[in-house]
Task: structure prediction
Amino acid sequence: MRDFEDYCWRGLITPEIEHIYSPYLRDRGVGEAPALLVIHPATPVAGHWTAAAAQLVAQARERGVPVVHSLPPGATPIAALAPREAEPVSPRPCESAFFSSDLERVLTRAGARSLVICGAPTSGAVRASAVEGKSFGYRVALAEETVGDVASMLHRLALFDIAHKYGDVMSADELLQQDNFKASNDR
Result:
């Protein structure tokens, strides 16, 4: 696995900020019994993140990891990430996929004890859902290539914030190599 600070925010942080945030350094990974939360944006967010997110969704389905979709009212799911008939869709009336939604019940029914997040925007719904996911006791992980934002700086700063406080940020390859990114036998 790459160095903790060797991700997309590398060019934004100074040695002083790196020193301030050094207590947050830790081993990263996917927790036990994960579910994949696909956060569909309210408005289109351009970028290459959708192809990587689609690959992550395909891998989750192949490995038997529950896939749950979070969709703002009236929004159309991104075609490459569209829910399958058996996959739950949790309406998202605000930024966090948890707040004022049934997501916690859906995850409990799926037997999830950890959460992998993909989608957009990184600085809005993805970050808010990572914060709430941690608050609900889930170990949160995400791959930097599978999330996107309207501006590169917002994306990078949000990932820095998530990595240092709320979840484990890694590359898609690193995430897919995690032993826990598969269906749990005790669900």
The CA atoms of residues 111 and 187 lie 5 Å apart.
